[in-house]
Amino acid sequence: MLSFLSFLAYYGFFYIAQAGRGHKHCPVADVPIIAHTGDPVGKFHNHSGVNYYITGPPSDKGIVYFSDVYGIELLENKLLADSYGRAGYFVVAPDFFNGSAAPRDWVNNAPGFDIQTLLDRSTPEVIDPIVATAIDYLRYHRNISRVAAAGYCFGGRYTFRTLAEDNGVDIGFAAHPSYFTSEEVSAINGSVSVATGDGDYSLPPDLRHQVESLLMNNTNQEYELALYGRAPHGFGVRVNNSDPRQVYAKEEAFFQAIRWFETWFNPQ
Ligand SMILES: *[C@@H]1O[C@H](CO)[C@@H](O)[C@H](O)[C@H]1NC(C)=O
Ligand SMILES: *[C@@H]1O[C@H](CO)[C@@H](O)[C@H](O)[C@H]1NC(C)=O
Ligand SMILES: *[C@@H]1O[C@H](CO)[C@@H](O)[C@H](O)[C@H]1NC(C)=O
Ligand SMILES: *[C@@H]1O[C@H](CO)[C@@H](O)[C@H](O)[C@H]1NC(C)=O
Ligand SMILES: *[C@@H]1O[C@H](CO)[C@@H](O)[C@H](O)[C@H]1NC(C)=O
Ligand SMILES: CC(=O)N[C@H]1CO[C@H](CO)[C@@H](O)[C@@H]1O
Fold first, then answer.
1. CA of 77 to the centre of ligand 5 (A)
2. Contact 172/159 with Cβ under 8 angstroms?
3. Which of 30, 28, 53, 50 is nearest to 40 (CA)?
């Protein structure tokens, strides 16, 4: 905890000092905390027939990272998982799509790719068992007792699902979650932090307010929901690195998740 607080204090100072220069170095270790570009530092690992991207130091705190439809092949997903690793967590990001995630540019240019086909075959019946292997891997192969979920977009739904009683996760964060149900939100049995943007088409204002009501009235859990101005859907992972507002929202959502975990993880 102390080291995390110093990390934040140093980072805060450094962030201000470096604002606008495009480098976010950790003054303690001289490595970037949040990497937006560069080479991933983790590796792939097959476990129980599922491919994982794993990254981060040995730790008593673990994160299951639930990717968006771009999967663990997307550079930004690997770099973001690495960033959680630099914050002190051992991270496992399972491949939800068995090597066939959405191509980076599917919205504009992906002949032959059909997002609906991908979604139709990526139902909870398929994804839940993959998630379960990853949680099992953290708890029983890495001996990690405190497990957090960090989910983005498609993966955000699995933050809610794994926070249900006995689903294996202690605490969660979801950025611009999509395709979830009210029942999944109401069923959480651990604290949750949600990040969304005013340009997030998956959480328009009426749905966002519904989520707020569900969190407030239908659960007894700690929660928060942060709205980032001018932040488009997907901002937690993919942003225009030349747009300071988007970069700010992405970084702030990352620190939202880290501070949430540090504050509300059950003490061991
Ligand atoms: C994953 O894809 C491989 C081919 O790349 C296939 O052999 C395997 O059956 C697939 N697994 C699942 C669970 O769909
Ligand atoms: C697992 O972690 C606990 C503490 O969290 C420790 O007491 C135990 O020795 C560890 N077991 C192994 C096999 O590393
Ligand atoms: C939630 O989990 C706690 C254990 O952390 C348990 O004591 C409690 O009964 C659960 N609450 C609900 C509503 O399931
Ligand atoms: C949630 O509770 C608040 C305060 O009691 C109330 O104003 C609001 O209508 C409730 N929302 C729903 C959806 O029940
Ligand atoms: C990224 O942001 C910069 C600065 O706001 C802008 O000039 C550029 O057009 C944006 N690129 C895309 C692809 O939107
Ligand atoms: C190297 C290796 O064994 N890769 C396998 C990992 O698991 C996936 C299924 O998710 C297989 O398709 C790979 O062949």
1. 21
2. yes
3. 53
